[in-house]
Amino acid sequence: MSTTLAIAHTEAPAPALAPRERETLRHIAAGRTYFQTARHMGLSTHTVDAYLRRIRAKLNITNTAELTRVAIALGL
């Protein structure tokens, strides 16, 4: 499945997210805390934070609201 998403104010497609990044994004967009996400995925909260920092860097976004918008756009 191709991950193509126009980022706000640009025409460039978003870089593809790794499967664990997509899963992390899905949990956060569903309203789970870092702790809940980490527990569900069998990770540490530091790893969840690292995944979200990586996602934000790839997609050039800075806040959770925008992460949620991206998750919805991706159908997560």
TrEMBL record:
Positions of the HTH luxR-type domain: 10-75
Claim: Transcription regulation is one of the keywords in the record: yes
Pfam families: GerE
Keywords: DNA-binding, Transcription, Transcription regulation
Listed SUPFAM superfamilies: C-terminal effector domain of the bipartite response regulators
Record region (Disordered): 1-21
InterPro entries, sorted: Sig_transdc_resp-reg_C-effctor, Tscrpt_reg_LuxR_C, WH-like_DNA-bd_sf
Keyword DNA-binding part of the UniProt annotation: yes
Gene3D superfamilies for this protein: Winged helix-like DNA-binding domain superfamily/Winged helix DNA-binding domain
Source organism, top-level taxon: Bacteria
Protein name as annotated: Helix-turn-helix transcriptional regulator
Organism: Streptomyces carpinensis
